[in-house]
């Protein structure tokens, strides 16, 4: 079941294909293309934990629910 309002955005210009977000995602939502850039392979599995956004060193991925970014923690 997909959660309406959950949006995983990947800035392909900023993503360097390090794979950190793929490694941290607990539900295997993210995968890498042949060129290493990440894409959302299983959006329905996203638990909105925010780890991908928190761990990306290049701010290339963001998760928002209903327009609110969820990983904005101090
Ligand atoms: S952690 Fe960021 S830079 Fe690394 S693969 Fe994921 S989105 Fe790309
Ligand atoms: S928010 Fe959590 S479950 Fe969703 S893609 Fe990012 S790491 Fe995976």
Architecture blueprint of SSEs:
Layout: E1 6-10, H1 20-24, E2 30-32, E3 38-40, H2 51-55, E4 61-65, E5 68-69
Antiparallel strand pairs: 1-4, 2-3, 4-5
The structure holds iron/sulfur cluster (2 copies).
One iron/sulfur cluster is lined by residues 10, 15-21, 38, 56, 58, 60-61.
Shape: globular
Span between N and C termini?
A: 31 Å
Give me the CATH architecture, please.
2-Layer Sandwich
- Tell me the domain tally: 1
SSE arrangement, N to C: EHEEHEE
Ligand names: iron/sulfur cluster
Biggest sheet overview: 3 strands, antiparallel
Class from secondary-structure proportions: alpha+beta
CATH class: Alpha Beta
Strand order of the largest sheet: 1-4-5
Number of strand elements: 5
The parts where pLDDT drops under 50 for at least 5 residues are: none
User: Could you tell me the strand content as a percent range?
Assistant: 15-25%
User: DSSP helix count?
Assistant: 2
Offer a quick outline of the entry:
The chain is α+β, with helices and mostly antiparallel strands and 74 residues long. It has helices at residues 20-24, 51-55, and strands spanning 6-10, 30-32, 38-40, 61-65, 68-69.
């Amino acid at each position: 079941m997909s959660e309406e309002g959950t949006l995983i955005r990947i800035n392909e210009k900023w993503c360097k294909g390090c794979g950190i977000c793929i490694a941290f995602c607990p539900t295997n939502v993210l995968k890498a293309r042949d060129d290493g850039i990440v894409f959302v392979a299983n959006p329905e599995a996203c638990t909105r934990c925010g780890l991908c956004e928190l761990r990306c060193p290049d701010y290339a991925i963001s998760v928002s629910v209903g327009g609110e970014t969820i990983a904005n923690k101090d």
